[in-house]
Amino acid sequence: MTEWLPTLRTATPEEGYALAVRLARVAVKLTQPDAAVRERLRPEYAEDADALIAASQVVATHFATVAAANDYWRDRR
Amino acid sequence: MTEWLPTLRTATPEEGYALAVRLARVAVKLTQPDAAVRERLRPEYAEDADALIAASQVVATHFATVAAANDYWRDRR
Amino acid sequence: MTEWLPTLRTATPEEGYALAVRLARVAVKLTQPDAAVRERLRPEYAEDADALIAASQVVATHFATVAAANDYWRDRR
Amino acid sequence: MTEWLPTLRTATPEEGYALAVRLARVAVKLTQPDAAVRERLRPEYAEDADALIAASQVVATHFATVAAANDYWRDRR
Amino acid sequence: MTEWLPTLRTATPEEGYALAVRLARVAVKLTQPDAAVRERLRPEYAEDADALIAASQVVATHFATVAAANDYWRDRR
Amino acid sequence: MTEWLPTLRTATPEEGYALAVRLARVAVKLTQPDAAVRERLRPEYAEDADALIAASQVVATHFATVAAANDYWRDRR
After folding, report:
1. Which of A8, B54, B57, C5 shows its CA 20 to 30 Å from the CA of C51?
2. Looking at the 3D structure of chain C, how many domains does it have?
3. Would residue C47 count as lying in a domain?
4. Does E47 touch chain D (CB under 8 A)?
5. Using CA atoms, how far apart are residues C22 and C26, in angstroms rounded to an integer?
6. Per-position b or e across D43-57, b if 16+ CB within 10 A of its CB
7. In this complex, which of C55, C67, C76 lies closest to D31 when CB atoms are compared?
8. CB B11: neighbour CB atoms within 10 A?
9. ipTM exceeding 0.95?
């Protein structure tokens, strides 16, 4: 992977959320580097409520970090 | 999706909680973009205690973030 | 639901804990609004150790938020 | 229950840990108030590695709160 | 148990991590005080990927607390 | 293990993420020190969506700690 995470700063909360989603996915890639296997697993967990909720939990944890890094975008008008 | 998260500020804790619920749901949408599939899964997990508790856990994590972003609504009278 | 969360402030840690329990339950209600279904699920998870522990985890996460909101009730004598 | 949580302050980290354990258990009691049922479940989860780890996770979350409430017992000699 | 947690301060991040591991294990001991049972469970979960990951999660939560208690060992050269 | 964690400081968020991945793996090694067993388990969980998501959750928790330790790399240009 080339540089994929130059900063935790984002212009908006929404971009921060998108970054959290990416942060959650990178760990999966690092544990399962084979894209073909990941593609095979995707439909499986994308139709499994438990897996969807668990994935949402990982995003929530990363979003907390990204939000803190951006001081909750408080200085935004 | 159009802009769905302009800010983490809410007027009240209750609106903050509602925002946490939305934050939890958006990750599910991003992982399973097909609304028809999500509709099919809904009755399944909405009648499964484990899934309901897991979903509540995601909301709790997001609520922590939203509450911090609002400085716990301390300046509210 | 009428206003159910006017503030995160509580007079005592104990009331803060009770609030955390309520915060955990509201998410379940929002995901499964049908009280009859919830009543049907209750005996099931209330006799399942894994579900009880998972529910306790959600309370722990909310209690962290409520405790921070109250500055850990430090100024209490 | 009579007053069971007058404060989050403890004299030592060890007492703080003990308090975290209690905080984890109280949520279980509130969800399953019947002591007889809890006694029946106990041997079951106390011999289940997954349940023991999950219970330890709840304690960890509460310990984080109690430790913060005590400013990590930094002023202790 | 004699005094096992006199302080959350450690000289290095590595010792802090070791402390987090101990903090995770103590809760298991308190829930299952019988060492013979714990020994019996050990090979079981030590060969179960899900249990290993869950145990690692508990360590992560405690490490966050220990790291904060040590101000992230920032003043270390 | 020789010294493996001299500091939580990293030059970039990306290196911080890599450190979080290592922090997640060390706990697994400490619980299952036998490298042969870990190798045997790896293909199993690397092809299991639930395990991949759970592993990603541990990384997320450690990343929060590492990010805080680095003050979110805010002073980086």
Report:
1. C5
2. 1
3. yes
4. no
5. 6
6. eebbebbbbbbbbbb
7. C55
8. 10
9. yes
Question: Could you tell me the pLDDT band of residue B48, with boundaries at 50, 70 and 90?
Answer: very high
To the question of pTM greater than 0.90 for the whole model, the response is yes
Kind and range of the H or E run holding B76: none
Provide the token pair at D11.
Answer: 């004299």
Our CA-based measurement puts residue E16 at a distance from the nearest CA of chain D, in whole angstroms, of 13
- Tell me which residue in A4, A7, A30 faces F73 most closely, judged by beta carbons: A7
Q: Is residue A4 part of a domain?
A: no
Q: What is the pLDDT of residues A5-35, one digit of tens each?
A: 999 999 999 999 999 999 999 999 999 999 9
Contacts with C76 from chain D: Cβ below 8 Å? 7
Percent of chain A having pLDDT more than 90? 90
Task: Tabulate helix, strand, coil % of chain D (nearest 5).
Answer: 70, 0, 30
Instruction: Give yes or no for D28 touching E (CB within 8 A).
Output: no
Write out pLDDT tens, residues F10-25: 999 999 999 999 999 9
Closest residue of chain C to B58, computed from CA coordinates: C58
Report the range of poorest mean pLDDT among E4-8, E42-46, E59-63: E42-46
Candidate from A28-32, A73-77, D34-38, F11-15 with smallest mean pLDDT: A73-77
List the domain range (segments joined by +) for residue A24.
13-70
- For chain F, the chains sharing at least 3 beta-carbon pairs closer than 8 angstroms are A, E
Q: Are E49 and F43 in contact (CB under 8 A)?
A: no
Question: D5 in a domain, yes or no?
Answer: no
Using CB atoms, pick whichever of D45, D57, D73 lies closest to residue E7. D73
A42-68 burial, b if ≥16 CB within 10 A, otherwise e? eeebbebbbbbbbbbbbbbbbbbbbbb
CA distances from C5 to B9, B12, E47 (A): 16, 8, 45
CA distance D8 to B3: 41
What does the pLDDT average to over C18-46? 95
Q: Give me the helices (H) in A32-76, please.
A: 35-46, 49-69
Q: B63 touching C, CB under 8 A?
A: yes
Nearest to B56 among C3, C8, C58 (CB): C58
Let me know: does A64 contact A18? Beta carbons within 8 Å. Answer: no
| Distance to chain B for A46, nearest Cα, Å | 5
Comparison of pLDDT for E44 and D4, the residue scoring more: D4
Q: Is residue D54 part of a domain?
A: yes
Whether F31 and chain E come into contact, CB under 8 Å, resolves to yes
